[in-house]
Amino acid sequence: xxxxxxxxxxxxxxxxxxxxxxxxxxxxxxxxxxxxxxxxxxxxxxxxxxxxxxxxxxxxxxxxxxxxxxxxxxxxxxxxxxxxxxxxxxxxxxxxxxxxxxxxxxxxxxxxxxxxxxxxxxxxxxxxxxxxxxxxxxxxxxxxxxxxxxxxxxxxxxxxxxxxxxxxxxxxxxxxxxxxxxxxxxxxxxxxxxxxxxxxxxxxxxxxxxxxxxxxxxxxxxxxxxxxxxxxxxxxxxxxxxxxxxxxxxxxxxxxxxxxxxxxxxxxxxxxxxxxxxxxxxxxxxxxxxxxxxxxxxxxxxxxxxxxxxxxxxxxxxxxxxxxxxxxxxxxxxxxxxxxxxxxxxxxxxxxxxxxxxxxxxxxxxxxxxxxxxxxxxxxxxxxxxxxxxxxxxxxxx
Length: 398
Prior knowledge:
Elements: H1 14-27, E1 33-34, H2 46-57, H3 70-84, E2 93-96, H4 99-110, E3 116-121, H5 126-133, E4 137-142, H6 153-159, E5 164-170, H7 182-194, E6 198-202, E7 230-235, E8 248-252, H8 254-265, H9 273-284, H10 286-314, E9 328-332, H11 344-355, E10 357-358, E11 360-361, E12 370-374, H12 379-397
Parallel strand pairs: 1-10, 3-4, 3-5, 5-6, 6-7
Antiparallel strand pairs: 2-8, 7-8, 9-12, 11-12
């Protein structure tokens, strides 16, 4: 069978593949601790779920305007208005079927054949695939490990060419948990503005931040004169534990938002109507939502500290990026490489088959020396998973 050139180089999502395999093994009766999942293990806050249920009862089960209901767009714009201290036009907001869909819309609307898009390593596995689907060229950029791979203008300049049109920036980072400071964001944004490069700012983990007080720094916190063309990608999935509801959004200039809405009208039409009603509760009752987020972030911080302590104590040879946000620990496993285990995929296969631990190989994120572990699970399962891993590493050394 022959398929379209559109998907000739397309690779499946490695994160979803690992999670699917872990679920399959569990269903077969295997004792598997899944530390691969990129989603909170908490239930959606009750008042948000109830709003979705009530939405169904009230008949919110039909098409809505493509970019989202006016009420939801107004509520999201209101959150931005409060953040920025100025009115934000709801026309800047497009609601999508998850932040992945938001990224797809932005990348497809802005980039095309001949364009190069800079993607820092490590990257979320779908970035280069979506850029490729848009017939643009992903260009990976490697920063210094000493800076936990956060990009500097010098790093970006080394990968720059006149064809560069975009930069995808994720902070807090999936997979590393790294968080850019406001000063670092300013330097990167000014570098991009000078070269007329679009920034696609993936801020889906912004509220899950352990560095300082409150959310992680955003490009929207920068002075207006530092920021050129941009699209901010955010949504309800991670911070509100709403991954399955599939609600993301973009914030951009209204002209760009109109183009993304037009594209969406030919792809999915509107996001799920009941899910929009649930998201409306999350964004319109913001203080209540932040109380729930605060509880989840406190749990993630506790688990982060537990994971780091156990790794330092039990497997000190696994160097890791200091996670200051999100809910991932990104650590180096090349000390295990030998004649049989030559890459991160073989390490993850070994740990899954021999110890029942599901992790995501670093090759999915652009660096085959590392693996990603999610600590979005219970403290007990997290500790048991790391202890199993430590026993496997010890047995291999002996």
